[in-house]
Amino acid sequence: MSPATGRDPGPDRRRSRAPGARLPDPFRDLDAQPDPAEFITRLEERGATPAHARLRRRFLRFAGVTPGASVLEVGSGSGAVARDIGRLVGPGGNVVGIDPSRVSVAAARRLARREGLQDRVGFRVADGRRLPFAGSRFDVSLAVTVLLHVEAPDAVLAEMIRVTRPSGVVAVQDQDFGTLVVAHPDRRLTARILDGVAEALYPDPRSGRGLPGLLARLGLRRVRLLTSVYQDTTLEPYTKAFLERRAANAVQLGIVAAPTVERWLDDLTALVASGGFVMTLNFYGAAGIKP
User: CA–CA distance from 132 to each of 78, 87, 104, 110, 229 (Å)?
Assistant: First the structure.
């Protein structure tokens, strides 16, 4: 494994940012990234990972996506979730995915056409805080691994509630990085890297556990919780890329030096070879009924 961090910048240059600095979350403005297509590849790679596909589809069943339903997905990215929804609602239903990224929307449309779902799955460029829909339009409104990236999730959820019909379902799912577990012989270093980077990237890296309370505060009824676990013991390509990005970010933030990160990654590779690699991460889903 290699985070492509380059050479150790030396003791006087290791801290490229001040302690406590924040890294910009690339998913907040994907189109401004040097290579937006790379992020589309990441999203599709995650979507194709069997453990992720299972927990995603379990959440859609929990959210009450049924044949014939009209469904909104906020923050649809490359469209992996929306395509799953399209298969669940069938030819009598319809799905609209919205995302602020033009690159994402173009890719999502292309991938939906490739799978023959364009007649029931559509995508629009829009801001989740100002949805371009009349009130009470959708049977179900969803946001999957989106609120983690948002400074004011209440505003997004308020809009989702507005466009959902009375007695319809509003459901959200987020990972919770306070539950991330990676087997590694150096536990303290692992915690420094993973916790330090998560704190620097996200407004609330433990947002998942707060979703039921958030839905209840916004007036939804019969709020329910679903806990799912992403589990990997073989170092899937998505997991490998995730850990390498965390390692590279740790160097960029000055949490650790590049040689330390290289050794950390080498130890993970050795664990994979010996059959001792484990990574788990909890995903929390919450769903409520609009009064």
Answer: 20, 24, 18, 22, 34
